[in-house]
């Protein structure tokens, strides 16, 4: 099949690779209808994570079931499915406790920007729609594979509650979904920290009541001013750098929680501040499967338009241009059409 | 007045120092009935915190109100009061949100092992009993100044819930109160990690269902075996060293929370593990005043004997021996009688 592969820093290609095959009874093969590029794909793209040249890349997709293993009984060829980027059996002790990203049979989508992908633990992981969705609905459904549940996880982990003030650090796609999640969870004030006008516009469409364009101490000061010096009730850290984490803890009020979902890179936690201020840290890799059913319901009910986050669509053959556009911040999130 | 002072590493004396005086209308002076030595007093005692030679030391006490400032209307001379080690106005935005240790008018008891102590923010901080308590009740009431609410805070921060498994790392007095708290909060299984027999006995009296005497990886393995490989639902980190924090995160199951109340010294958080396993960190300096009313009710109701933690009582003149006994682990917690 044709698949996106990475060969070095800023070296993304489309290559012929072997088709995925069923090797375990819990596997399924999905023919991809739409995939996309994740902010976390930019870490290896920029040379900040180790890679094996020629590896496939991409972990977000939706598609149609092509083939299932013997133990997969709830899905059959032809079903339209959302493929959570982290696969889980949804039956182990960790899954039953709602920690699906800690599943003892954890797996990952490894070719989400391709023609096909393998889903391990298909029975526990996949979520299907009733029949084939309209093409117009596909981008919104695609957000359920990772970015929407991840933003949701940031908000849930940060303890967003009706009436409070939530501040989102990071205006990548995950941060924007943090804004949407905080808004849906009832935060009275949702502050998006964003310098980029196109992203500010999406943030406002997703429910941001305020935008803070300043960064670092100026951004902290702006949030403190907005909150009468008190700080935020909940902070969603949606980047993963030390800079964003320090900002998050500076704007978090005493007794609050920073919900973090950005893969941490070079972060040193301000432990003394956490201790003195009773500011907790919660979150991590999202238990995607846990959230998909409720978020799918919200998507199908209408009233929100998560697909708005895709401001560029490229055919699979042009996926390298999609990476360039995201790397250069010309695009917020790029949909890849196989 | 006579007060305990610190002059250098392992150099504790009883000195004549100026009596505390009312300087703000929110102040009160309390004549101490009983004080005690805290595990955190051992950090400066052992030379691990900077000190100013001659400073008073000690922050846990109960006593009788001697004098109050003009703004203190709920207390009068003669009232028996519990003095939370961290003073708060209990009216600011942080206090109203339950984060009293982040109070904008935060203060601390600075001469808890002495004849008198100054309480800033007395109106918001003090909690009185109905009349003078029996002498036999004083040790239990004394635990409410710090160690009991701090153990309670560890359990609350770790999300201890009825039916779960709580593991307490650290068998100092705070850890023992973590055991008591987890038990009172309904944990089905309360595991005390303790090598010291006298402390194991107190842990069992406080509700520990299991004791793990092994440390480090052997201790982690023992807890994992006790929990069928799953790990603990809640972990109470009651020490503050890197060793105890690493142990805490290794025994915490995915999706759980480590509640920490030991002042961190040289701790490096395992952030990757926290991210991958969705293991949160919450807690910090206890909002003592928040918990005192409900814990006082439990103490007065009987059925628990928090005063059991004091296995040595010394007169103020012998306070240095009290420090030695705690430093050498000959005593779990030392009551100081002015």
Task: Classify the secondary structure makeup of chain A into a structural class.
Answer: alpha/beta
Q: On the 0-100 scale, what is the average pLDDT of chain A? A: 97
Main beta-sheet strand count, sense and barrel state of chain A? 7 strands, mixed
CATH architecture identity of the largest domain in chain A: Alpha-Beta Complex
- Number of continuous helical runs of chain A: 12
Oligomer: homodimer
Q: What global shape of chain A is seen?
A: globular
Radius of gyration of chain A: 19 Å
CATH topology of the largest domain in chain A: Quinone Oxidoreductase, Chain A, domain 1
Main interface by residue count: A-B, 36 and 36 residues
What keywords describe this structure?
18 strands, alpha/beta, Rossmann fold, 26% strand, Quinone Oxidoreductase, Chain A, domain 1, homodimer, 2 domains, globular, 338 residues, 7-stranded mixed beta sheet, 6-stranded parallel beta sheet
What does this 3D model show about the protein?
The structure is a homodimer of 338-residue chains. In chain A, the strands form four sheets. In chain A, strands 3, 5, 6, 9, 10, 17 and 18 form a seven-stranded mixed beta sheet that branches. Chain A has a six-stranded parallel beta sheet with strand order 13-12-11-14-15-16, with helices on both faces. The relative contact order of chain A is 0.16. Chain A has two domains: 196 residues, Quinone Oxidoreductase, Chain A, domain 1, CATH 3.90.180; 136 residues, 3-Layer(aba) Sandwich (Rossmann fold). In chain A, strand 17, helix 12 and strand 18 form a beta-alpha-beta unit. Chain A is an alpha/beta fold and 338 residues long. Helices cover 30% and strands 26% of the residues of chain A. In chain A, helix 5 packs across helix 6 and helix 5 packs across helix 11. The mean pLDDT of chain A is 97. At the A-B interface, strand 15, helix 10 and strand 16 of A face strand 15, helix 10 and strand 16 of B.
């Amino acid at each position: 099949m044709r698949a996106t592969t990475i060969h070095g820093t800023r070296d993304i290609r489309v290559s012929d690779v072997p088709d995925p095959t069923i090797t375990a009874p819990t596997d399924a093969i999905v023919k991809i209808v739409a995939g996309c590029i994740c902010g976390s794909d930019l870490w290896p793209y920029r040379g900040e994570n180790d890679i094996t040249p020629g590896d496939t890349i991409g972990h977000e997709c939706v598609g149609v079931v092509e083939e299932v293993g013997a133990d997969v009984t709830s899905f059959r060829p032809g079903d339209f499915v959302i493929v959570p980027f982290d696969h889980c059996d949804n039956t182990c002790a960790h899954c039953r406790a709602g920690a699906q990203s800690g599943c003892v049979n954890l797996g990952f989508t490894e070719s989400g920007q391709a023609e096909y992908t393998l889903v391990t633990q298909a029975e526990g992981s996949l979520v299907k729609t009733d029949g084939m969705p309209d093409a117009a609905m596909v981008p919104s459904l695609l957000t359920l594979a990772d970015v929407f549940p991840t933003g949701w996880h940031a908000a849930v982990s940060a303890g967003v509650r009706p009436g409070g003030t939530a501040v989102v650090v990071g205006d990548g796609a995950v941060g924007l979904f943090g804004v949407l999640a905080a808004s849906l969870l009832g935060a009275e004030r949702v502050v998006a920290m964003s310098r980029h006008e196109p992203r500010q516009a999406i943030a406002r469409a997703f429910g941001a009541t305020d935008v803070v364009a300043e960064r670092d101490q100026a951004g902290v000061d702006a949030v403190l001013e907005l909150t009468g010096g008190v700080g935020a009730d909940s902070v969603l850290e949606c980047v993963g750098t030390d800079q964003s984490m320090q900002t998050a803890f500076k704007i978090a009020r005493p007794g609050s929680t920073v919900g973090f979902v950005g893969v941490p890179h070079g972060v040193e936690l301000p432990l003394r501040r956490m201790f003195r201020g009773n500011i907790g840290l919660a979150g991590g890799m999202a238990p995607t499967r846990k959230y998909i059913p409720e978020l799918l319901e919200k998507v199908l009910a209408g009233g929100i338009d998560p697909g708005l986050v895709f401001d560029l669509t490229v055919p699979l053959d042009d996926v390298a241009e999609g990476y360039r556009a995201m790397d250069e911040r010309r695009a917020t999130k790029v949909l890849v059409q196989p």
